[in-house]
């Protein structure tokens, strides 16, 4: 993604400033930003929703790419790295997302979620309880179960294997450049330790979120939504992507050959360009233009 003058936008600071925080008896919620609220009208405001065992800091590469297109707030949610998963007994992911959004000091125009966080956004969009909705949404590497995919023990076992692989990839991404010099057995041991700490409740939180996507009323969602995933990402394989596109008329689903599950951290320039183009297209469309369901698969 490039600025109009050809220069790439600069990265955000190496730290984020807490602009709002709530420490309750059950969970802690926080909102972090790199800028003070600006008078309206101004650039659209985006809230960033991290995935399971993720955190606000993982958004810094993508926030830098989006700096010329929107103002960003990173949400620090109960499913952050190291949590004990007690939050699952006191509210759905969509509930906790709405609690965090209420802390953002200005209206949120765009919701951008990754993985588990993307599905929290999807649940929020499909919930018809009258909660304020964004003008647009972006789902990075979400999960989706077509109605034809039966929930049985083989699916459970396959999901558990996929969960372990995602945790391994997440540990690798979190290590950054250090991962290249790390013995594969050490990386595997670190991932096993993380999976053991997360435990059954953490995995089942993800599994139930995945299997429950079929029950969401996605046909009633009117918020224009961009869905991005990689060709090799099993969380949204080709058939699941097609099923999501068919179930959600407001969605444009794109699968990219070079995107990983952690594309917001590993391919931030490409993801930023996709999001910027999506937002530019929305701005150019008349308000009365319908948003048709689209499935776009980029070939090698």
TrEMBL record:
<dbReference type="Pfam" id="PF12697">
    <property type="entry name" value="Abhydrolase_6"/>
</dbReference>
<protein>
    <submittedName>
        <fullName>Alpha/beta hydrolase</fullName>
    </submittedName>
</protein>
<dbReference type="InterPro" id="IPR029058">
    <property type="entry name" value="AB_hydrolase_fold"/>
</dbReference>
<keyword id="KW-0378">Hydrolase</keyword>
<dbReference type="InterPro" id="IPR050228">
    <property type="entry name" value="Carboxylesterase_BioH"/>
</dbReference>
<dbReference type="InterPro" id="IPR000073">
    <property type="entry name" value="AB_hydrolase_1"/>
</dbReference>
<dbReference type="GO" id="GO:0016787">
    <property type="term" value="F:hydrolase activity"/>
</dbReference>
<feature type="domain" description="AB hydrolase-1">
    <location>
        <begin position="48"/>
        <end position="271"/>
    </location>
</feature>
